[in-house]
Design goal:
With 480 residues, the protein is of the alpha/beta class. It contains 18 helices and 23 strands. The chain folds into 3 domains: 80 residues, 3-Layer(aba) Sandwich (Udp-n-acetylmuramoylalanyl-d-glutamate--2,6- Diaminopimelate Ligase, Chain: A, domain 1), CATH 3.40.1390; 211 residues, UDP-N-acetylmuramoyl-L-alanine:D-glutamate ligase (3-Layer(aba) Sandwich), CATH 3.40.1190; 160 residues, Alpha-Beta Complex (Protein-Tyrosine Phosphatase, Chain A). The strands form 4 sheets. It has a 9-stranded mixed beta sheet with strand order 9-10-8-11-12-13-14-15-16, with helices on both faces. Strands 21-20-19-22-18-17-23 form a 7-stranded mixed beta sheet, with helices on both faces. Helix 3 packs across helix 5. The two termini are 38 Å apart. Involved in cell wall formation. Catalyzes the final step in the synthesis of UDP-N-acetylmuramoyl-pentapeptide, the precursor of murein.
């Protein structure tokens, strides 16, 4: 199906089209480019113009460039623009302008990607749904997602992130959501914001892009909730709050966290509701309430969405759970691996430790014969001047009492390692590579292992090492 013709793309960007081409998609990476995609030659670590010829040879339908690159034929299918980033943004705005989809935008210090994926899952069963890949939530990710938006999509879910002040407003004005969701406000990126109130004010700018009649969905029991509500009142026709405190429109009354599922008991506009989410974690239940609020506000069936939530699982690196077989000759010699190695701040760290504590190790197998809960924790980055104290404070979390061993990765995590009781201390290493080398010696059959840290801490290397040490069994196969 054609996504952009040469004439449409030229009109959208004000560029010059060479040839009468058609593009079926939009790509910024030759490694994931599909035949028919328009390749957008962005300048990042490398200049995308260096890859245009490879993209065309790989089947690209066209390429967006500022000039004809060396080695590329003069009559190649191109879209020549003054600036490629600006051209992508213009294409994204045009994609949003022509779409008939009901759009939900999601931001938050914790849980925005998993909430976006929940929405993709539950809306996808009720109509054609378009959503950002992975965490495409920045200055190129949002316009890329909008440029890929099919004209006939019924729903669209756009994730919007930030690292510094002033990033969210331009992106939400580009996305023009009908519903804007803030999952929570927590200490993250404090390095750039100085205070949690500053983070809240930046998150609240997501409401500036709301369409007329738009709805704000926000956490109703935060210290910074008044900041969010004040901003929402300026831009939203309706505000829906969710959380655990009395007075929330969507209120979580009780949460049951089991090993592989979370059950929420809630009241939604005075209606009692029981729902399941197909993963352990109290925070998933709270975010599910935000999902149900957004589903209702875009006109989808809330009852169907409740049913579909039970079949949702988080994306890789966001709390996914694998079973790894350590002994090829004995299928009972397995560990459970919780991979949450993509991002970290104090709030998300506590949520992930909740998942670990809910999991049940298995005794009487392996060398040690007693299953353990093991946490492998990497540095939480961009927390500013108080980062050492925030790392040390993790030792005071109530979940820590139920964890047998904690391995710490990075200079900041040394503060946690030193604050832990001696019998809980595993290894402390400066780099993830050091721990990855000995990963297979850290675990034993029956253990449940959580790996969590900011992406820059590279603790995903430990996840990779554990997966190489064991043979992965799909959770679905084990359940059958």
């Amino acid at each position: 199906m054609t996504l952009w013709t040469a004439a449409e793309a030229a009109e959208a960007t004000g560029g010059q089209a060479i040839g009468d081409w058609r593009a079926t998609g939009v790509s910024i990476d030759t490694r994931t480019l599909m035949p028919g995609d328009m390749f957008v030659a962005l300048k990042a670590a490398r200049d995308g113009h260096d890859f245009v010829q490879a993209a065309l040879e790989g089947g690209a339908g066209a390429a967006m460039v500022t000039h004809v690159p060396d080695g590329v034929a003069e009559d190649a299918p191109l879209l020549i623009v003054e600036d490629v980033q600006a051209g992508l943004e213009a294409l994204g705005r045009a994609g949003r302008e022509r779409a008939k989809a009901r759009v939900v935008a999601v931001t938050g210090s914790v849980g925005k990607t998993s909430t976006k994926e929940m929405l993709r899952h539950v809306l996808g069963s009720q109509g054609k749904t378009h959503a950002a890949e992975a965490s495409y939530n920045n200055h190129w990710g949002v316009p890329l997602t909008l440029a890929r938006l099919p004209v006939d999509a019924k729903y669209a879910v756009i994730e919007i992130g930030m690292n510094h002040p002033g990033e969210i407003a331009p992106l939400t004005k580009m996305a023009r959501p009908h519903v804007a969701v803030i999952t929570t406000v927590a200490p993250a990126h404090l390095e750039a914001f100085e205070s949690i109130e500053g983070i809240a004010r930046e998150k609240a700018t997501i409401f500036e892009g709301l369409e007329p009649g738009g709805v704000a969905v926000l956490k109703g029991d935060l210290a910074t909730t008044p900041i969010l509500i004040e901003a929402a009142e300026r831009h939203a026709a309706k505000i829906v709050t969710f959380g655990t405190a009395p007075g929330n429109h969507h209120r979580l009354l009780k949460t049951e966290v089991h090993e592989r599922v979370t059950v929420g008991h809630a009241r939604i506009w005075r209606t009692p509701v029981v729902f399941k989410v197909g993963v352990a974690g109290r925070h998933f239940a709270e975010n599910a309430l935000a999902v149900l609020a957004a589903v209702w506000q875009v006109g989808a069936d809330r009852g169907v969405a409740i049913t579909d939530l039970a079949r949702w699982h988080p994306p890789s690196g966001r709390g996914t759970r694998d079973v790894l077989q350590l002994d090829s000759g004995d299928e009972t010699w397995t560990i459970d691996l919780i991979d949450d190695a993509f991002n970290a701040n104090p709030a998300s760290m506590a949520a992930s430790l909740d998942m670990l504590v809910a999991a049940q190790p298995r005794d009487d197998i392996g060398r040690i014969a007693k299953g353990r809960r093991i946490a492998i924790l990497g540095d939480m980055l961009e927390l500013g001047e108080g980062e050492i104290a925030l790392h040390a404070a993790l030792a005071e979390l109530p979940q820590m009492r139920d964890i047998d061993e904690v391995h710490c990765v990075g200079p900041r995590m040394k503060a946690l390692w030193e604050a832990l009781p001696e019998d809980q201390r595993g290894h402390h290493v400066k780099s993830a590579e050091k721990l990855a080398e000995r990963a297979h010696r850290l675990v034993d059959a029956g253990d449940v292992v959580l790996v969590k840290g900011s992406k820059g801490s590279r603790v995903s290397l430990v996840v990779d090492a554990l997966r190489k040490a064991g043979r992965a069994l799909r959770r679905e196969e084990e359940d059958d």
